Amino acid sequence: MSIIDASLSHSRTVLGVLAFILIAGAISYITIPKESDPDINIPIIYVSMHHEGISPEDAERLLVRPMEQELRGIEGSKEMRSTAFEGGANVLLEFEAGFDSDTALSDVRNKVDLVRPDLPEDTDDPTVNEVNLSLFPVLVVTLSGDLPERTLLRIARDIQDRLEGIETVLEVNITGEREEVVEILIDPVLLESYGLEPEDLLARIGASNRLVAAGALDTGSGRFAIKVPGLFESADDILKLPIVNSGDAIVRVSDVAKVRRSFKDPTTYARVNGNPALGLEVVKRTGENIIETIGAVQAIIEQERPYFPEGLIVGYSNDKSEDIRTMLTDLQNNVLSAILLVMIVVVGALGVRGGLLVGLAIPGSFLAGVMALSIMGLTVNVVVLFALILAVGMLVDGAIVVTEFADRKLAEGVPKEIAYGLAAKRMAWPIISSTATTLAAFLPLLFWPGVVGEFMKFLPITLIATLTASLAMALIFVPVLGANLAVVVRLVMILAVAAAGYGTLSSVAIEMLEPNSLAALILGIVGLILGAALGYWLGGVTGRLLERTEGDPEKAKALAGPSAINDSDIDETMDPSKVGGLTGIYVSILSFSLRAPWLVLLLSAGTLVGTVALYQVKGHGVEFFPEIEPKLMIVNVHARGNLSVNEKDGLAREVENRVLALGAETGEFKSVYVS
Questions:
Q1: What stretches of 513-641 show up as alpha helix (H) in DSSP?
Q2: Which of the listed residues 147, 190, 275, 643 has the most CB atoms within 10 Å of its CB?
């Protein structure tokens, strides 16, 4: 017994499996992580070293060379590049695409630990970093307005704590902030009057602000920890610090100096629409849903908005969820449009039954493919969405062929169970070979080397999963659905109308009665029962409309045998002149082509060669990504000389003022960010 016969003889099991696939696929589509770019490992690891004030020449000699000597032996590294600059150096290692990032990171860290003793004493600990696209910010929350810098920083840190409490958020980094410091303003006259030097004051403050590990005290009858307060926690702690004592007289810091909170000198400036700003860069965890993550972040911001001070402007930039949401909407619209158009065409050619069966094949194949992607641990990204849209036009071929053949047998009077079984068995190999041919065209993309190959492998994986599901839909589920369409339609009608009845009467009960009262519950159950009864009746009427004449049993019995697939009664002699319309034109062209095969082959070869030659002469070239209208424009300001940060800011302000004036005139800029 073939798998097709087994499916038809166990139709309830097959329908149950189909229902499971549809439900599980829908759940997978809702819960699968969605992101803009595929999560691939960029084969680059770099070691960053920082040494305050070191010259580029010394950085090359003291930092780069020892590091290169050790890292040269890393297994799997393809290329090593080093850069020395004032204040530090970087050593970059490039690996082959598809490398094991965990193993490579471990090997690099081990080598860096071996080099650490050979570096100068004042060099900060080297850091090992990997390039990971999933660790780039998915959203930047900007805080700006005519507010003091300390107020903006306090609000930014409060929001940072709230956002990092979200489960799907890995970290939130504040950009544009300055490190807070405590300034001690010494009065030299007062200091000299006490016979003190500035070094005495600085030494006493440095010796006092220390963490003292005192351990624990065991008294014999108990044990308790000892805490020795040694760190400054407020400005008063510094002001009350004794510097020197003489008998009962104590000279404190407050006697010779003043203390105030301040910030370090700025090294960068950041503004949004001309106002000073801070940015909170939100990084999601790898594999998490970008839409849900950004939605949770924006929900917390909106909850805090009523408590923000007047004049604070909160904005969002680099929102990658907008592109993902747009692509998902486009996908859903394409799928619905494809189902509608295919059903219109098939209903016009084959009838309502064929249109329903082919229409069910599209969402069934999609949901099964998405479930397979979820099981493999993949995400929905721009490449997957492109593959799904590409598959819309290819996954209905098998279902159309099976439905058309079965519809022809039904028109001959064959019972529906036998007709769909014959259609699936007769068309099995043509459908399998057609699908395999399509998959063979995309299969080599799985072995595309390099970073681009890692990026593009999602395309063949998605197509293989979706088209394989369409093959199962065409050969197993469509025949079973066709043979039991009346039962399926009645069941769907019962569920749909019952749910509608329950929802309608429940909403009426909530408005008229108490939401959780017994009467409201009873009214909802009554709506459910009435809806189920109405759906049962509507399903029966619809099922009878879809039924076809089953024919006489003798002919069906004959067709069920081995001779069922032998169309020996077909008239192989046909006069093209007797066929009219578009079909007649096609038959005439086909008849001429069969009489002159060499001419057809010659025209085909000439078309192939001519097309390639014409493209070489008139073609517009090749590019990796198509040119599209960008959402973002960056203006880079360059100048000669070793400028200070304030001089750079002055030049940037000139350009910024021009851009803001242009934005005010045209109204086409959403935001202007200056760094």
A1: 518-546, 553-559, 581-595, 597-618
A2: 147
Q: Scan for tokens 């990204």, then name that residue.
A: 381
Q: How far is CA 248 from CA 242, 244, 245, 251, 407, in A?
A: 12, 11, 7, 10, 111
Quote the CA–CA distance of 603 and 595 in Å, as a whole number.
Answer: 14
Average pLDDT over residues 509-521: 64
Distances (CA, A) of 28 to 285, 329, 379, 380: 19, 17, 11, 11
The pLDDT-based confidence of 561 (bands split at 50, 70, 90) is very low
The DSSP bridge partners found for residue 82 are 91
What's the Rg (C-alpha) of the chain?
Answer: 37
What's CA 342's distance to the chain center, in Å?
Answer: 30
HSE-up of residue 559 (Cα within 13 Å, Cβ side): 26
Q: Which of 47-61, 257-271, 451-465, 551-565 has the lowest mean pLDDT?
A: 551-565
Q: Specify burial of residue 219 (Cβ count, 10 A radius: 0-12, 13-18, 19+).
A: exposed
Tokens 């700003």 belong to 277
- Identify the CA nearest to 384 among candidates 327, 469, 319: 327
**How far is the C-alpha of 566 from the C-alpha of 558, rounded, in Å?**
12
Which residues sit opposite 380 in a β-bridge?
34
Rounded-to-integer distance, Cα 464 and Cα 444, Å: 12
Q: Where are the alpha helices (DSSP H) in 139-270?
A: 149-164, 188-193, 198-208, 235-239, 253-256
CA distance from start to end of the chain: 72
Cβ-Cβ contacts under 8 Å for 79 (sequence gap 6 or more): 93, 94
Ramachandran angles phi, psi of 62, nearest 5°: -95, -25
Residue 126: Cβ within 10 Å count: 22
What is the percent of the chain with per-residue pLDDT over 70, rounded to a whole number? 90
Contact 285, 168 (CB under 8 A): yes
Q: How far is CA 602 from CA 52, 594, 597, 605, 611, in A?
A: 75, 14, 9, 5, 14
HSE (CB half, 13 Å, CA atoms) of 213?
Answer: 0
Higher pLDDT, 98 or 448: 448
Q: Of all helices (H) and strands (E), which one includes residue 375?
A: helix 352-375
* CA quadruple 93, 95, 97, 98: dihedral sign: negative
d(C-alpha 471, C-alpha 116), whole Å: 59
Is 189 a residue whose pLDDT tops 90? no
CA distance 7 to 10: 5
What are the residues whose beta carbons fall under 8 Å from the beta carbon of 635, sequence distance 6 or more? 655, 659
Instruction: Compute the distance between CA of residue 666 and CA of residue 663 in angstroms, rounded to an integer.
Output: 5
- Whose tokens are 């009219």? That residue is 580
| Helices 352-375, 458-472: crossing angle, 10 deg rounding | 140
pTM of the model: 0.66
pLDDT digits (tens, 9 = 90+) for 602-650: 999 999 999 999 988 888 878 877 777 777 888 999 888 778 888 999 9
CA–centroid distance for 355 within its chain? 34
Which of 472, 166, 483 shows the shortest CA–CA distance to 293?
A: 166
CB 425 within 8 A of CB 333: no
* Contacts for 211 with CB less than 8 Å, ≥ 6 apart: 230, 231
**Res 237 pLDDT > 90:** no
Q: How far is 341 from 331, CA to CA, in rounded Å?
A: 15
Identify any residues that bridge with 83 across adjacent strands, giving them in sequence order. 90
| Count of all residues that appear for the chain in the document | 675
Residue-level pLDDT at 575: 63
Sign of CA dihedral 409, 411, 414, 415: positive
Two tokens at 100? 């094991």
Of residues 10, 45, 20, the one with CA closest to residue 127? 45
